[in-house]
Amino acid sequence: MNEDVVPLDGNAAAGQLAALFAVEPTMIIVTCEGCGREGPLATLRYYGEPLGVVLRCPVCDTANVRSASTGKQVTLDLRGSSRLTVHDNEARES
To answer: What is the mean pLDDT of residues 70-76?
Structure first.
């Protein structure tokens, strides 16, 4: 690591991450950790539960997204996804 670089804390990424989570979630491109398939979140298979959901890859059945809600907090587990990609709306329309 370069000694001239002073790392900042996670607050420095807040603006960029806020933009990531302020998009239509069904259009987020999910890359499956299991088989490498890339596709919109909307194409994953949904399994609902009383406290949360599981979204699975339609090709290999890997659980790509898990979400649980207790009413006071929401937990998002993305261990089955190797990457999430959000396309800029303006770039897509060009």
So the answer is: 88
Domain ranges of the chain: 26-93
Please give the full DSSP string across 15-83, using - where no structure is assigned: HHHHHHHTS-GGG-EEEETTT--EEEGGGSEEEE-SSEEEEE-TTT--EEEEEEE-SS-EEEE-TTEEE
Q: What are the C-alpha distances in Å from 70 to residues 8, 51, 75?
A: 32, 7, 9
Among 22, 56, 53, 28, residue whose Cα is nearest residue 41? 28
Percent pLDDT > 90 in the chain is 48
